[in-house]
Amino acid sequence: LGSGTLDDVRRMLSDMPAADVAYLLESSPPKHRHVLRKMLDDELAGEVINELSEDLQADFLGRMDAEEVAQITEGLDDDDVADILQQLPDRITNEVLDSMNQQDRARLEQVMQHADDTAGGLMNTDTITIRADLTLDVVLRYLRRHEEIPEMTDNLIVVTRNDRYIGLLPLRTLLVADPAVSVREMMITDQEPIPATLPDDNVARLFERNDWVSAPVVDDNGKLLGRITIDDVVDVIREDADHSLMSMAGLDEDEDTFAPIRRTAPRRAMWLGINLVTAFIAASFINLFQGTIEKVVALAVLMPIVASMGGIAGTQTLTVLVRGMALGQVTATNQGWLINREFAIGLLNGVTWAGVVAIAASVWFEDWTLGLVIACAMVINLVTAGLTGAALPLLLRRMNIDPALAGGVVLTTVTDVVGFVSFLGLATVFYG
Amino acid sequence: LGSGTLDDVRRMLSDMPAADVAYLLESSPPKHRHVLRKMLDDELAGEVINELSEDLQADFLGRMDAEEVAQITEGLDDDDVADILQQLPDRITNEVLDSMNQQDRARLEQVMQHADDTAGGLMNTDTITIRADLTLDVVLRYLRRHEEIPEMTDNLIVVTRNDRYIGLLPLRTLLVADPAVSVREMMITDQEPIPATLPDDNVARLFERNDWVSAPVVDDNGKLLGRITIDDVVDVIREDADHSLMSMAGLDEDEDTFAPIRRTAPRRAMWLGINLVTAFIAASFINLFQGTIEKVVALAVLMPIVASMGGIAGTQTLTVLVRGMALGQVTATNQGWLINREFAIGLLNGVTWAGVVAIAASVWFEDWTLGLVIACAMVINLVTAGLTGAALPLLLRRMNIDPALAGGVVLTTVTDVVGFVSFLGLATVFYG
Asked: Domain limits at B423?
């Protein structure tokens, strides 16, 4: 990008698909981004902003006035415009809505009623609906009157006179079936419509399990509101999976890889602060055993080993549980089994490595008591780690706290404290 | 499941979609699984096994002979059968292939030539191809001669007489365009076909960026081999995202949430063993400072704080990099910028929390020297953490080592060692 004139770059950008431009922006340091952004014309800019992560969207949108927003969002799908408007201050959102015609505005307000993370917030209103009593031949002629069929249309939606959902007519059926038969005879009725209030991760699971390309969305009375398409579901899947990974490191899943320092540093500082408090809590437990450490300094050398092994074992269990919960596999009926299993694994691996550690420590410091103490502490801490790693996320979920975010902090505090106290406590007993 | 007779359960299962049965199996402890499995008829069993995670697939397949495998895979897509066969011992795979007819076998061998994790391994051969010189009317009549059009068909693929890919004709164009015009006039030619050797994560990124439902796959000479559909791509996206999360805890992304203890315990034990070695390395550095700790026991109390803060800060940086690399955002041109940013964030947050820690430690132990020492060590370790967290994954990638798997172990070793050495080393200097 350094070489070439600005005009060359502008021409290159206008030839690229919006998603590639968005990718280029995501992969560029901040100062390049704004130069690139200014080179996009309104239509491309709208599509590009739509493809960006929320963090970057907010950054670009924050610099626009209502008129600019109205211009760039003109060509976008309803759900995408709704997402963008929901990020803006109310004043600007209202100005943008005021500048639209009655029909566009009504449709958008419909989508914006629903929370961002529900089926209603994911849906588009670009459905093609038909009646069940038509023949396929009539449907084919009806379609020919359209300028174009919306992208990702794999099914026509069959509704009653009152717009209630009855079934789906796949295009691939329409193309091979006898044109003389009625829609009613050929339609699929076993695909349940999605309620507008369903959380988006459940929507994603339905799409994954049933291999849908699109699915109809209805209100409480079964009235058709719109449809959800796989491209938006893929984004939900990506975000959900990112959420677990990023949260476990105390990061936001919308975190932009190339966010500037002044935005990233304070966010991360908060997480470090929380961990600093828990580290001081763990330290205060070590403090109780100053006398013992003074007598046997080898304890200070070995104590981080016990704590760290507990942290590792606990994190493994926690990760398995967090993923299982994100995939919807962990239920009330199987959670007891899981806790038992993690207890057994903790005990088994605790005993295994306790033996190794005991020998290593005894040989290193020529002190068999030390080996015995560290072995016992290791078993205690690995069992604690297994139990905490399994029970904690279940408990946090019941308290409506995100296990991926809070789990790691609480877990390592527990394994640190139990590790230090069991090791130094046993040492105090043995060395009197 | 406890209540009700086995017949009731069997009837219930045969009414459920395969994906729901698979989900039920995934969420059941091992001993329930095999009871449930035995109740499925062959056709359903094939679809169900196809939906299971690799770990569970292997478990079920391991108990079958060639004849059973041949029966259950009869109704599946080529790419799914190929995946299943590739997991079996060669002897059984050959027996299954021998039992097929010539045509099925040739098609399967075609798919099996390609590695599982490439475009070729993801593709199906159920394409509908047409010639460019036909009119749309002829195409419509040609389609009517099909019993059915394969699922997820959004485009017909336009090829030359020699089966070379030229373009795509969307069904949604076919349904609205003038039947008298030719395929050539209406086809899309700007969608590049996917080379069979493209790695599957790149395929996923192409689908995500371009919102494709299906895409054609070609060989080196541009000859059409098959097509990839979004349902298989969604699985790749899910697996890739899982990979980062699970690897960072030393777990396999195919790890089954409900795997039995005898399978899970040894896998996790290995990871604990690796971490035990690194914990001993860190401990051996503490050991160098026994004399200083003996003089000032407060050092033993505070040293885990320095190490743990470094670990947290480094993990945050590492996670951002691992995710950025998985999304393909980190390139040779921007990695320098990233390392600089992480250095700056480490310095900024190091100084911020060093101040807080210095005051807390000084007040706690009524010793200002201790405050100064821990403050300096904290800054050193947080800067090291930022630099290591950013540079290490880039280095590991260049060495073809998975940064998500190896990164965490190496990182915490570095932050532990640097944390202990800087803190205890400075203390040795200050306390003489």
From this structure: 261-431
Interface subset of B 161-220, CB within 8 angstroms of A: 171-176, 207-211, 213
**Around Cβ B143, how many Cβ atoms within 10 Å?**
18
Q: Which residues of A touch B302 (CB under 8 A)?
A: 283
**How high is the pLDDT of residue B2?**
52
- CB under 8 Å to A266, separation ≥6 — which residues? none
**Does the ipTM exceed 0.90?**
no
Interval A106-126: pLDDT, tens: 878 877 888 878 999 888 888
Which sign, positive or negative, has the C-alpha torsion B83, B89, B94, B95? negative
Read off the pLDDT of residues B88-124 as tens digits, 9 standing for 90 and up: 888 888 888 888 888 788 878 877 888 878 999 899 8
Residue B236 shares a structural domain with residue B160: yes
pLDDT tens digits for range B205-215: 899 888 899 99
Q: What is the DSSP string of A54-122?
A: HHHHHHHHTT--HHHHHHHTTTS-HHHHHHHHHHS-HHHHHHHHHTS-HHHHHHHHHHHTS-TTBHHHH
- Determine the average pLDDT of the residues in B343-350: 94
Residue A4 confidence (pLDDT): 58
Whole-angstrom distance, CA of residue B344 vs CA of residue A251: 18
A297 domain residue, yes or no? yes
Q: Report how far Cα B409 is from the mean position of its chain's Cα atoms.
A: 19
Output the pLDDT for position B3.
Answer: 53
Provide the token pair at B17.
Answer: 């979609």
Q: Are B231 and B207 in contact (CB under 8 A)?
A: no
DSSP one-letter string for B396-413: HHHTT--HHHHHHHHHHH
Instruction: Please report, for the domain that includes residue A113, its CATH number.
Output: 1.25.60.10
CA distance linking residue A420 with residue B257, whole number of Å: 30
Closest to B190 measured CA to CA, from A150, A352, A15: A15
Domain end marker among A74, A90, A122: A122
Tokens of B160: 């030359």
Which residues lie below 8 Å from residue A222, measured CB to CB, with a gap of 6+?
A164, A165, A193
For residues A322-349, give the mean pLDDT.
89
DSSP-derived letter for residue A138 is H
Q: Is B163 exposed, middle or buried (0-12, 13-18, 19+ CB in 10 A)?
A: middle
Q: Is the pLDDT of residue A308 over 80?
A: yes
Partner B, chain A 346-385, Cβ-Cβ below 8 Å:
348-349, 352-353, 356-357, 360
Chain B contact set for A268 (CB, 8 A): 313, 316, 345, 349
Q: Which two tokens stand for residue B42?
A: 């062959």
Q: Which helix or strand (DSSP H or E) is residue B170 part of?
A: strand B165-170
CB contact A30 to B (< 8 Å): no
pLDDT in tens, B18-42: 778 888 888 787 778 878 877 777 7
Residues A280/A81, Cβ–Cβ less than 8 Å: no
Mean pLDDT of A389-396: 94
Same domain, A107 and A17: yes
Same domain for B425 and B277, yes or no, is yes
> Please, are residues B303 and A278 in contact by the beta-carbon 8 Å criterion?
no
CA A339 centroid distance within chain = 25
So what's the pLDDT on residue A8? 76
As a whole number, the mean pLDDT across chain B is 88
Average pLDDT, chain A: 88
Beta-carbon contacts of A316 under 8 Å, excluding residues fewer than 6 positions away, are A389, B249, B250, B251, B268, B271
Which of A27, A318, A344 has its CB closest to that of B329? A27
Which pLDDT value is given to residue A411? 94
Q: Element (H or E) spanning B378, and its range?
A: helix B368-398
